[in-house]
Write a structure and sequence with these properties.
The protein is of the alpha+beta class and about 100 residues long. It contains three helices and four strands; from the N terminus they run E-H-H-E-E-H-E.
Length: about 100
């Protein structure tokens, strides 16, 4: 299915470490909803600090929940003007990466 990932691009004024912390918090929240094992099986994401992007696969129920949680957290923390989000083909999510906490 095309367009089943979301790419978030953050403004230069946002500390990207805070974006990564928001992603980690969203992953923990998804684990609360679906369990750690299911999140490990169903979630794929890629973070690129050089380009200030975060890409999250939304092809599974868990991935869609992770996207909802993440966008909710970054909206509250940074506001709607500090990032952009677009749907992209999930083939852009090459290899899942773990966010270090």
């Amino acid at each position: 299915m095309p367009n089943d990932a979301h790419q978030y691009v953050f403004d230069p004024g946002i500390a990207f470490e805070d974006v990564e912390a928001s992603l980690l918090l969203a992953i923990f929240a998804a684990e609360s909803l679906h369990g750690e094992a299911q999140v490990r099986l169903d979630v794929a994401h890629a973070v690129d600090s050089d380009h200030r992007t975060c890409l999250i696969d939304a092809s599974t129920e868990v991935g869609r929940d992770l996207n909802r949680l993440f966008v909710g957290f970054v909206l509250r923390e940074f506001g709607p003007e500090c990032f952009a989000v677009q749907r992209v083909d999930r083939s852009a999510v090459r290899q899942p990466q773990e966010v270090q906490g």
